[in-house]
Amino acid sequence: MSDLMARMGELCASRTRGDSLVALGLGSCIGLVLLDRRKGVAGLAHIVLPAAEGHAELNPLKFADTAVPELVARVLALGARKPMLEAVIVGGASMFAGAGSTLEVGARNAAAVKAALALQRIRVHAEDTGGAKGRTVRVDPATGVVTVRKAGGKNEQLYPPMSQTSTRVLQEVA
Amino acid sequence: MSASYNELQLDALRELANIGAGTASTALSEMLGRTIDLAVPDARVLPMAEAVDQVGPPEQEITGIMLGVEGEMPAAVLMLLTPDNAEKICVMLGLAPESELAPSALAEIGNVVGTSYLNALAGMTGLALDPTPPATVTDFLGAIVETVLTVRAASSDHTLLLDSSLVIEGEDCSIVFLLVPDHGGAGELLERVGLA
To answer: Which domains does chain A have, with CATH numbers?
Structure first.
């Protein structure tokens, strides 16, 4: 029963009931969630930049091209099945809109994460990216529920879609 | 390459930050007509993952004013203050807090304070430092700080933070002032003061 934090350039994964995977205050960075909902396994990577571009000595978990395969390996090691993996992408905001191209890294991050997922043949089932707002993402491995909170806002469920969960609840009631 | 500096070099960076922040506090004092106290500045080299937490709680809502720095020492200057304190400063300037002029007034404060800091650094080191126009945003502290650090993350897993606090006397109001040089930027600074 604990909050596992993914800080800049870190990842966490769990199959323990009651755990939460959390990335606090994502700006231009991406929180990449991988889920095998049937197995109750989830992983979360806090990705900073699109690619290492020749800096092989740096932390590979910081870069989309190297962090994605590593996160896949971590959730598979916990019992997730690759064909069942679902991806959810959060973050990639442009915090200082108009303050110069160096800070427009958010959109490039989102594109690089999607490209790296495509190489792994993993489909993106939901995303909340872009815009100018920071985001906190939380993942419950047991249920596969992903929630996002923006500054000044409340936790909102991003995945599975609310309509889907509510119908399922209705079916269970029936 | 990881950024590593010895104590002597960090002391020199602290001293530079102190003089820069001193000049910045004089500028702020003149704009607001108040006395400004300066907290002892710090220079810290931190692993990227820890840097945000060292600045403050990642989910705290904060107003950030950022200036880019171009020229011989690419860097970012980031000023952070709570939304309450941002309102207090607007009131000191004679604006209603919810005035539509508030964001541009804050950006102007950031511009004057940040530029004075940079001019002091430029004067001491002889480096050409060109500030870019300020951008103001209110959001999660983590999101603001991480976005500024990201640019530095391409070439190092560590970051150098030079921080100071400007405290407006009698108002319980303070501004945290951060200088984050791009990788290699601090090397330039140290070279100019003969400690590279």
So the answer is: 3-173 (3.30.1330.200)
For the stretch B142-177, pLDDT in tens is 999 999 998 777 778 888 889 899 999 888 899 999
ipTM of the complex: 0.89
Give chain B's domain count.
Answer: 1
pLDDT class for B1, splitting at 50, 70, 90? Answer: very low
User: Which residue, among A148, A114, A113, has the nearest Cα to A131 in the 3D structure?
Assistant: A148
pTM of the complete model = 0.91
Regions in chain A scoring below 50 on pLDDT: 101, 174
CATH of the domain at B18: 3.40.1550.10
Range of the domain at B20: 7-189
Q: Is residue B143 part of a domain?
A: yes
- Residue B1, in any domain of the structure: no
Nearest to A95 among B48, B144, B155 (CB): B144
pLDDT at A166 (0 to 100): 56
* Structure letter (DSSP) for residue A96: T
* DSSP per position, A42-75: EEEEEE-BS--TT-TTS-GGGBHHHHHHHHHHHH
Whether B112 is covered by a domain: the verdict is yes
CB pairs A-B closer than 8 Å: 115
Which positions in chain A touch B154 (Cβ < 8 Å)?
49, 53, 55
Residue of B nearest to A27 (CA): B143
Q: What is the CA radius of gyration of chain A?
A: 16
Mean pLDDT of B4-19: 88
- Do the domain assignments include residue B194? no
Return d(Cα A9, Cα A6) in angstroms, integer.
8
